């Protein structure tokens, strides 16, 4: 199986502080991966590096065999927050912006996801609740046609029914060969769709395991496994 994401010997420091150390990670084509770790573990930083949005790391990150930043940006869709937009902008304008900036953005696909998630296009950005904004970010991210989708903590501020809908939309609109990486502090409902789990702890990749392997070892599943690592009683080590 081909690796879509290949990270070797990646180290990242910011303002003289070590943020990620010696990250080695391969993710195969088609996988849905949970990137887990407590607050400040480095999940967002790792996603920004994969997306080519953070600079100054040592080591290599290849996406679909490419390591030039422009090439990576073209094949990675990252759930960027919408902070750069004027709060008074209407959602329809944000959609046009995405269409202009990303040649692979599909308005048709956006309309389908937005209909499913019930995103109201007539509103201004400032009128959206936290959860609605999160849904919009997910709709925009999933509407590009790329090899990798990075969803950074997509469930913040989202109620349980909407979480279920978001999970369904990931399943429904994921191309079979695309990789989806979803970060979170806890596993919650997402665990049922994961093929693999990657845990960041103490600035390093603590573990990368198949969800099936975890489920066969831990009766209560991925959540119990994750908690055991942070509570320091992982059976593996
Ligand atoms: N611009 C920055 N300058 C300095 N340190 C930073 C910067 N951005 C992040 N950090 C530090 O990098 C570490 C990792 O942060 P990051 O946001 O990647 O973690 P995270 O796992 O996504 O956390 P959370 O779950 O809270 O969002 C933290 O210690 C944070 O303080």
Automatic annotation (TrEMBL):
Pfam families: ABC_tran. Gene3D superfamilies: P-loop containing nucleotide triphosphate hydrolases. InterPro entries: AAA+_ATPase, ABC_transporter-like_ATP-bd, P-loop_NTPase. Keywords: ATP-binding, Nucleotide-binding. Signal peptide: none annotated. GO terms for molecular function: ATP binding; ATP hydrolysis activity. SMART domains: AAA (SM00382). Residues 5-227 form the ABC transporter domain. This is ABC transporter, ATP-binding protein. It comes from Lentilactobacillus kisonensis DSM 19906 = JCM 15041. The lineage of its organism: Bacteria, Bacillati, Bacillota, Bacilli, Lactobacillales.
């Amino acid at each position: 199986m081909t690796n879509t994401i290949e990270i070797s010997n990646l180290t990242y420091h910011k303002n003289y502080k070590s943020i990620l150390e010696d990250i080695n990670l391969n993710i195969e084509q088609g996988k849905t991966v949970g990137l887990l770790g407590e607050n400040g573990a480095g999940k967002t930083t790792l996603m920004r590096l994969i997306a080519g949005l953070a600079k100054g790391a040592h080591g290599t990150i290849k996406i679909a065999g490419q390591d030039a930043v422009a090439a990576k940006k073209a094949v990675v869709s990252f759930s960027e927050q919408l902070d750069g937009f004027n709060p008074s902008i209407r959602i329809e304008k944000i959609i046009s912006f995405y269409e202009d900036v990303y040649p692979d953005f599909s308005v048709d696909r956006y309309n389908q996801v937005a209909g499913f998630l019930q995103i109201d296009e007539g509103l201004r950005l400032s009128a959206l609740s936290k959860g609605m904004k999160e849904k919009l970010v997910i709709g925009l991210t999933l509407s590009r046609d790329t090899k990798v989708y990075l969803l950074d903590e997509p469930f913040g501020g989202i109620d349980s029914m909407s979480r279920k809908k978001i999970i369904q939309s990931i399943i429904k609109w994921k191309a079979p060969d695309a990789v989806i990486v979803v970060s979170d502090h806890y596993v919650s409902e997402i665990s049922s769709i994961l093929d693999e789990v990657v845990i960041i702890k103490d600035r390093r990749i603590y573990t990368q395991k198949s969800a099936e392997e975890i489920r066969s070892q831990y009766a209560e599943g991925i959540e119990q496994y994750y908690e055991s690592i942070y509570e320091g009683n992982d059976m593996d080590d």
